[in-house]
Amino acid sequence: MKRIRIGNGCGFWGDNLDAPIRLAEKGQLDYLTLEYLAELTMSILALLRNRDPKAGYATDFIDVLSRLGPILQAQPHLKIITNAGGLNPQACAEAARAVLKKNGIEKKIAYITGDDLLPKFASLQEKGQTFSHLDNGKNIVEVADRLVSLNAYLGSGPIVQALEMGAEIVIPGRVADACLTVGPALYEFGWQADDYQKVGAATAAGHL
Predict the structure, then answer these.
(1) pTM, two decimal places
(2) Which regions of the chain are under pLDDT 70?
């Protein structure tokens, strides 16, 4: 029976920087996942990106990746999946590539975009999208002047696609938290999105 080992080394931006290192060293992992995002975090990243177009991602990941250098050399099979991309996955991927190069490491890095809807806000409204509040049904136009971020949760599909293309480090922006685990499970086991019992088990593992 095929098995994969997935370990999550981070639960929020600002979490213990030593945890993912220890986990990668001792966990005998196939995948290391790092989860950084919350709604408040997205707002902070939006403000940072407004000040600097190259910002907007969880910089802790770059520090962790730098420290992971020797481990990645000793464990070349180890893959990393992280939503550290935040509001700027491309900039995060570029920073990751630079820090790996500095350590003499080459990895195939994929970044995933498409979740950031703020640039499309006006056109989506013109097409009739109201972004109605789930609790009170109010139209988002009532708070439009205060919006700093507008993101749709992506699923596991783009992560699977990145792995199929040979990516060894996958950096999406806003994806559902459990997708960091569900994605590699779908890829490794060849599950389909409607294999609900299996996907449900992977979702539970991802949330844990």
Answers:
(1) 0.94
(2) none
